[in-house]
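Key result, reporting period 2: structure in, sequence out.
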């Protein structure tokens, strides 16, 4: 991994000569993943660099493993009664995360951190926790006990041992902030790959839509389908991203807050496509826990996102808003395609 990190830490800039269009790319490692930002057009180099800085500064605010981050300060004061001063954006992010917990109860909770720790997902020592350790960690998961006071500009965790983990939404939030930086710089065509969160800005410079593949959870060099997209984020959550094996059983990093165990809802992956980058990231995690039926019911109740679900039994379910412009490529991988209708 170190080799990968040092390689990607080197920013790469280059210009496309001849046609007058310039392109700049930044590749870097933050939020525990490799990211790249590619910007087209005049001022691309400066814009890409500014967007990268924005993402990196958000990591400094939101990381749970950096002891100096705002989130670490919030966690350090859990249960001691201190209302920790936060910046307004972070408070809004915490409020948003609490609201997602209400959308589909029992599926999403950013106070899942003690359970992530019990499984060792925060460090290198990943293992199945014993029942007592898991029960103790589960008793601390309750985002109702994360008190956010936007007027006072503070947040507080009510119980000692509670902690917040923004892993499920930090990259989507970073995407929305990076997009704002790029738009402010006048960028109208860009591609951001923030680690399974792909954001496309505008169409490509030739005026056609971006073509973005949804990875096969069993082999991410292959695609289940390819989507034609403009001005959206495509966020994927799956059990294949981070996992370990113990006694021949695989355990992955998306936890069902109802059981404390890796979610086992019958889905291999969930991809959310939305103009709201933060919502896309939050919902990919939430709906992966929720499962096919609840995910599709929830989709039918809203009009601000579309889905590609990959089920354990080999189906790729594409919601009808993506039907035009989607190309199913999973047939030779053994998948069948279904279109979900409202
Ligand atoms: P990734 O960040 O790996 O691309 P996700 O966006 O689905 O995938 O986020 C997974 C991360 O979210 C986990 O590593 C953990 O930090 C956190 N998490 C795990 N389960 C939940 C949950 N049920 N609700 C909220 N956050 C969770
Ligand atoms: Mg997510």
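The corresponding designed sequence is given below.
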């Amino acid at each position: 991994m170190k080799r990968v990190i040092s390689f990607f830490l080197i920013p790469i800039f280059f210009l496309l000569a001849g046609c007058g269009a310039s392109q700049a790319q930044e590749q870097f490692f933050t939020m525990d993943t490799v990211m790249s930002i590619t910007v087209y057009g005049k001022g691309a180099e400066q814009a890409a660099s500014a967007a990268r800085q924005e993402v990196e500064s958000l990591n400094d605010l939101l990381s749970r493993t950096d002891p100096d981050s705002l989130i670490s300060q919030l966690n350090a004061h859990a249960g001691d009664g201190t209302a920790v001063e936060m910046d307004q954006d972070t408070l809004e992010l915490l409020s948003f995360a609490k609201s997602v917990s209400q959308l589909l109860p029992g599926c999403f909770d950013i106070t899942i951190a003690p359970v992530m720790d019990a499984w060792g997902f925060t460090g290198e020592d990943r293992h199945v926790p014993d029942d007592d350790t898991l029960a103790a960690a589960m008793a601390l998961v309750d985002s109702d006990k994360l008190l956010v006071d936007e007027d006072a500009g503070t947040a507080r965790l009510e119980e000692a041992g509670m902690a917040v983990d923004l892993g499920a939404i930090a990259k989507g939030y970073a995407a929305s902030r990076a997009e704002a930086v790029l738009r402010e710089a006048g960028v109208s065509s860009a591609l951001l790959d923030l680690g399974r969160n792909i954001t496309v800005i505008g169409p490509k410079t030739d005026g056609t839509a971006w073509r973005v593949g949804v990875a096969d959870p069993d082999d991410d060099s292959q695609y289940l389908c390819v989507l034609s997209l403009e001005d959206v984020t495509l966020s994927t959550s799956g059990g294949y991203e981070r996992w370990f094996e113990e006694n021949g059983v695989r355990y992955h990093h998306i936890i069902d807050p109802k059981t404390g165990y890796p979610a086992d809802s019958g889905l291999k992956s969930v991809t959310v496509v939305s103009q709201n980058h933060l919502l896309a990231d939050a919902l990919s995690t939430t709906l992966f826990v929720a499962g096919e039926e609840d995910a599709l019911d929830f989709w039918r109740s809203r009009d601000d996102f579309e889905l590609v679900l990959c089920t354990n039994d080999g189906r790729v379910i594409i919601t009808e808003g993506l039907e035009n412009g989607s190309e199913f490529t999973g047939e030779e991988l053994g998948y069948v395609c279904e279109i979900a209708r409202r």
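The first strand starts at residue 12 and ends at 13. The mean pLDDT is 93. This case is discussed further under Risks and Mitigation.
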